[in-house]
Amino acid sequence: MKTETVSILSQRGTLIPADIVSIEGKGGLLILAHGFKAERTEDGRFTAVAERMAEEGFHSIRMDFPGCGDSKEAFSEYSLDHCLDDMESCYRYMEEHYPLDGRLYLLGYSMGGRLISLFLKKHPETQKLVFWAACNQPFTLDDRFLEQSFRTLKEQCDREGSCDFYDIFTEETGKMSSTFVNEMLEWDALGPLESFAGDALIIQGKHDQTIEIENAQWIYDRMKNASCRKLHYIQEADHGFGLWDGRPQDSEELVRTTVSFLEG
After folding, report:
1. For the chain, what are the domain ranges?
2. pLDDT tens readout for residues 180-190
């Protein structure tokens, strides 16, 4: 097993910070997509899954999306389209530089769950999906996104081309692109799951107050054509799966359950 940090040229000419865990010889590929305003290790949980899956014969790649982690782009460049472009660029990089055996697994946390669902539209060859507290629900102008009104965000975007966004995680205000706001309102992240024929695992904290826990059931219900679908609740976990409330056992269950599913 080898771990390296690389910079990958995106399809739009930017550099994507990424971590690759590789194995000797041919192996499957696991792509990990982090959450909104997060970073590519997801506080070590992504790292743990990647290293465990290397023992099971998988290469893996995880990247920082625009304006997140070590990315040099402004957060105003963050959009679903740009994130998907970065995932595609990283996938192509792995195909060009590492011997892959055709197995493709995707793992998404929170907004990353929305991304892997949309990524499926271009990559139906995906065989396994794992959702961690995924943000896949449809949004309207009457809904809220991380405590802010979509209507207010949209109105400012329409006037100014971007909007002021208060980040409840860092308690900072920054600029959010009108592209992202419109994508969240217009792009269907549940529809691509209807034709998925592989195996899927949905993990949700029962005390998640950031993402409506009904999301887990909506995702499960949409995947009626999956060969196997599992819904796993972590009883005392919130959206951070133990990170925010000093419960490392929740993160341990999260990683353990994920790896058990992926290696099965």
Report:
1. 2-138+189-263, 140-187
2. 999 999 999 99
